[in-house]
Every structure is written in C-alpha cells, then in structure tokens.
Specification:
Elements lengths: L1 E5 L6 H10 L6 E4 L10 H11 E4 L3 H6 L10 H13 L2 H9 L5 E3 L2 E3 L14 H10 L4 E3 L7 E5 L4 E3 L10 E5 L5 E5 L13 E7 L4 E7 L3 H10 L4 H9 L2
Parallel strand pairs: 1-2, 2-3, 5-6, 6-10
Antiparallel strand pairs: 1-11, 4-5, 7-8, 7-10, 9-12, 11-12
Helix pairs in contact: 7-8
Bound molecules: zinc ion.
Zinc ion binds next to loops.
Amino acid sequence: MRLLVFSDVHANATALEAALRACAGRWERAVCLGDVVGYGPDPNEVIARVRPLVSAIVRGNHDKAASGVSDLGGFNPVARTALEWTRNQLLPENARYLQSLPVGPVEMDGIALVHGAVEDEDEYVFAADQALTGLLASRRPVTFFGHTHIQGGFSYDGARIEHVELSPKPGTHSAVVHLEAKTRYLLNPGSIGQPRDGDPRAAFAIADLEKRTVEFWRTPYDISAVQDRMERAGAPEALVLRLAFGR
Ligand code: ZN
C-alpha cells in the first residue's frame, strides 16, 4: 500500500492543492503529521480538505495553540500574531476538530507518526544525536516526523546514524530512498505550506512499505497568490516574505 505522508500545511490551501494534484492516483491512504493551521491564510479551507483525506493524523503545536488546547506563551511575536488571527477565523466545528487531534506517536502498519520528537511532540529534531533517541525509542522501524519543515531525516543500522541523502533525478520532482533491512528510520516529508530548507516548493512524501521505498517530492505552487491573501489578512511581513525563500 502506498501512503501519502504530509505535514505542516500551515493553512496554505494553494500549496496543498498543488501537492495533491501532483501525486493524484499515486497513493491509497494519506497521513498527516500535524500543524494543519497557523501562519497561512486558509485555516478553515485546509481543515475541510485534510479532515476527510487522512486515515491517521497527529496534532502539532500550532493546532494546539490555535484551538486553545495550549496557550500562546511559547511562540515568538510573529507566530503569536498569526495564531491570534487564526483563532478568530476558525469555525467552532473546526476548532473542535483541532482539539480532538491525538498526541503522537500514532502507530500503524509498520510505521509511527509524530509531530516533533518521538518522546516529546513539541521538540524539534535537527541533529543526529537527538534523532538517535527517537530511532531507539520508537516502537516501529519507520517513524515519520514533522515540525522542523526540513525534508529528509535519519537512519540507524545498529552501528551508525546517518543523514538520509536526497538526490533527485535530473528533470524530476522526487528523490527515492530505499529502506534497508534491519535499519531504523526517522523521516521528515518536509512542509507543504511553509518549507524552511531553502526550497520554496511544497514538500511531501509517498511511502511504499511493501517495496520499501520512500519518494520525497517537491511541487511548485502559486506562492504570490498565497502572499496576496496573507497581506489582505494583515499577516506579519516576515511570514509573507519567507514563503518565497523557503526559509
Ligand atoms: Zn510547523
């Protein structure tokens, strides 16, 4: 079974639609690693799209804060401004949906889903030594995580921990990683709605656990259309600009 794995949509409906169009017909089930909302201009539209799409989902820190599960204390002023705006926009039914999202890890056929780290949903996993803790702690050999908005991840074969290298074939939008036997993986599909790895295109992954492959995808979308909607909504300029840089 092929699984669409996506994360950190951050209320960017244009990026989500572009990603779904790009991979139409290539997956059977979809899973989401949280941060459905926050930063972007389309919180209700994105929830309406994601909700019927996913067969499993975990909550992100922005989902918690936007729906009142947590307060805005841990966020920087720019993120806080966007979250206050999101809180005012959310339809009550959509706020209730965000409140109902489960804490990771959520486990399913051979994989686990988390937003941040395996043992702490709010922790950012940037470095190999941090990743090792999760690689050892996860109850599944393949764990998907989000939160950092950086596509890629880590592998551990019992002796060495390594960065997963993504080298897209020329002329294609995806890089294929083959999952080795007896190796544990912590893999990040990247962010749909606000990539931060220097590539502004929407990021996601398609996993085929029978064939033991994970395709890491990038899809261009109409960034300026999203920026226009953010400006009309009064979003902080830093949030508007960063979409174009993928930072
Ligand atoms: Zn996020």
